Each structure stands twice: as C-alpha cells, then as structure tokens.
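User: I've been going back and forth on whether these two constructs are worth ordering. Before I decide, could you fold them both?

Assistant: Sure. I'll take them in the order you sent them. The first construct and its structure tokens:
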Amino acid sequence: MATEAPDTAFDEQQFEAIYPTGVERHYWNICRNGVVADAVRSVGPGPVLEVGCGKGLIVADLRARGIDIIGVDLAPVKPLDSVKDHVRTGVDLFDLDPSELVRFRTILLLDVIEHIEDAAGFVARIRAFLPEVRNFIVTVPARQELFCNYDEFNRHFRRYDLATVRAHLDPGGDRRWKASYFFHLLYPAAWLVLRLKGRRETRYNVPVSWTSRMIHRILAVLFRLDHALLPARWKGTSIIATVSDR
C-alpha cells in the first residue's frame, strides 16, 4: 500500500517482505479477500477504486469475482501482470484528473490508513476530491496492545479499535456504519506470542507445496467462519468497516 505522503509509501524491501510472490496463497490473504468481496457486494453494484493497491492483489482477486475495480498506488512497484492494465503505480491519487474518476462510487482503503498520521484528514480529502463517492470500505490492523516490531517495520502510526475507526471515517457520526473485528481466533495467539517473545516475524512465509497450500485454504475457511459466526465486537487482529452516505 501507499498513501499521499512519500515517507509512508512502501519501498521494494517492504513490499517483498509482506507481499512476496505467491502471497495470495497465504490464508490471511485468502480470508481477507473473501471478507472484502462480501463487503463490496453488500454496498450494491458499481465500479470500485482501491487506493493504496500495491501490486494489485485485491484488484486481481475481485476482478476474478466479476467486480469492476481498478487500483492506484503511490509506490513505484511493478503491478501483477494479470492486472497491469487495471493498476496505476507510482502516482498519487490527488495528481489524477478527478473527471476520470467520476464513475466510482466505492473506495477501498485496505490496510492503508494506519500508515497515515492524519487518517481522518486523508479520508476527508478523498471525499472532497471525489464527491461522487458514496461508500468507503476499510480494513485496518486492530488492537493497540498488539502494536510491535511488525507495525514499526511497516510504518504504522497505530492499530485500531472500533471507536477509532469510526472517528477517522465518520467523525460526524451521520453516515450508515457497519464494522467488525475479524481474525478473532488469531488474537489470543498474537497476544501470547508478544508476551512470550516480545516481537513477531515481519515476513510472510508463502505456502509452496500442495500440502501447505491445502492447509492454508483450510485455515482461510476457518477464519471466514470465525468472522461470520463470532460476535463483531469480539477482539480480533483486524477490523473491516463500511461507511456509506445516507
């Protein structure tokens, strides 16, 4: 991902650490992609713009599901070949011609706003720049007590709770709002690892063998059920929120 500030944009080292080739097969990404796809469908039809799309992992996944989406990212990284015609990298959203973006009604900010010091101001700036947008779908890392070396490596300013997400997306409290923690079952494991080791890995291990791929698919299903069945307010390691104009 990247934001409007160059010092918060990922460099190649960070991209390769958390988005190595094949990372789309990791259970975390499989699960998050599904959760995001459900949220996009819930706001109704219409083209989607992902801001901070990185190499285009989500763009590729959602397009494969039949969703009309393009992405833009500040970092000058190479997009995935499968979506190179639908992703623009090395460009700031606010440098684009807004007349080219009037068709978009939904913005995705997926693990983006935690990288921005003034997240509420950033969202407000997007609203002013693209007044036709009606929906924001956002994911963020959750629970400040889990803040650690991984967040520092990725230049996070914070981890979120539900109240802080709403304060940054809908400070007036006058929009339709839905939010939930997810990866509930990861929370106790992450908490315990930090208490015992004081740090966590900063790289993703990509499943390569058939066996490891199957394990990751099974885990992804487990965490989708975790999100679907457990109470939204139960602590998890991530949050997904949808904010829509009334």
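The second construct, handled the same way:
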Amino acid sequence: MAKKKVVAFVSQRNVCRSIIAEAYAKRLGQEVIECFSFGLEPDRVHYLVQEVLAQRGFNLTYYFSKRYEVVERQPFDILVLMHPSLKEQLPQIGYPHEEIVWEFEDPMQQDIPEAEKRKAIEQLCDAIEQKVKELVASQQQVA
C-alpha cells in the first residue's frame, strides 16, 4: 500500500471551513490521507460550527483552531486553500507540494441572523463533504 498523502486545509481563521474539511477528511479518507488544518489568523472554532458538526456525529474534542507555526514541522503533500484569496497570504513553504484551491465563502464573515448562519454552515458542510469525497477518491486512484 502506498504511503498516505499528508493534507492541510487552510483558511483565514481556522474557525469554520478548514475545520469542517479536516473533520470530513478524517472521517472519509483515513485510509488514504492524513490531514490537518490551520488558519492564517486563527481564532476560536465558532460554536455554531461545533453544534452543526456534533449533530452530524463528529466528536470535536481534538479540533481546535491553530496557526501554521503549530503544524509547520509536518511536511504536507497537498495544501487545500479554502478560498482563492488565501494564495497571496500563504506562508512560504520551502518544499515541493501540490496546491488545490477551493472556493468557499466564510459564513462567519456574513452579517446575518444566527438561524441563517446555521443554515449556511449546514450547506457549507454538505458542499465541503462533496469536495472531500472527490479529494479522497482522487487519492484512492493514486494509491
């Protein structure tokens, strides 16, 4: 069996999109990828994200927002940027790696009522789950 690819999901604050992606990747891809997430300006994982993921059966005990420096000793094969705007802000990574750019807006940045924000997070979870399935499938073909 081929060595697992190491994947990092990158977002601005590591409070929503990249945490969701990490959770789904750990659930769906543990046979073919090892995954992490980090934020360029980390903050707390948003409580609505925690609630929505918990309702979907995720145990978030070990999920927390972290900056690149926390994981920089871990070499990554693939960096998944959760939005194209992150490319210019990404720290210099001095080894070969693949970059994949997804385009997910951050619902935490939207000034909308809590019920709408929760619905946006649920829709985001569904969309990210689909992208993670595609990523996992692509790595299964390589393995």
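Notes on the second construct follow. The radius of gyration is 14 Å. Strands lie at 5-11, 33-39, 78-81, 98-101.
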